[in-house]
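HUMAN: I'm a chemist; might I ask for a sequence paired with its structure tokens?

ASSISTANT:
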Amino acid sequence: MRIVVTGAGGFVGRALARRLRALDHDVLATDLTITQGLAGQIGDPALLERLFAGPVDAVFHLATVAGGAAEAAPDHAWQVNVAATRALIDAAARHRPRFVYASSIAVLGDDLPARVTDGMPPAPRMLYGAHKAMMEQWIACQSRRGALDGLSLRLPGIVARPKAPSGMISAFMSDLFHALREGAPFTLPVSPDATMWLLSRPAVVDAMVHALSLPAIPAPRCLTLPALRVRMADLVAAIARATGGDPALIRHAPQAAIEAGFGRLPELSTAMADGLGFRHDGSLPALVEAVLADIQEEEER
């Protein structure tokens, strides 16, 4: 398949592009800066013309301005997350590709019931979540009109991102892995009892590749991916066991807004995604093992 990947220089995008190439797909990778692909702004007409000059079978759209960065620069976030995404969809429509969109659990908002199911309506509080919800609806609309074969995948917390700034308020989930692995002190902005939905990077890449193989995409063309619901104290203990790190290095200084947005996630039911063959990491030890192996492999590249 000939596949466009936006945000291909980012954390998930790099791994996805590598996996697709390993599967012998012809990957057209793009990001603001990228060594193996086309560099440029995703909404730039000249870049879009180059990406879609020939037939394209699938698009993975990962480029975004994430949580905290979107709040700090709302006009820029709108331009990238909404206007440029629409331009990308319009350009892709000439080929009617499978269009896999990296959405987010941020579309669900903060005021969640005791159990989140597939029927949970979007109610975003953050601009990032609102932008994702808007584009979910646009992709579904364009799919009904026959322009695309679209699927929005709502991603949970993906670990473990590099230590470099990501603009994501949830980066503390990843920073914890690096701190315990390196024996460095670290202060978490959530309590020991905070609960999160997590996937390793290898698991989310598995999910995206699996999306290519689906023979048909059911309405409403958006899925919350299966994820492990993890208590922060249990995550600290599991990483410490796997790395030999000292859990006493980890302090908790809960911030009310972060705890509310990222540390009170309830039970999660993903019957639709489960039925389509999407899977999470399986267990907390398996997630930690996959993340640590992924970090090691990244360092060796």
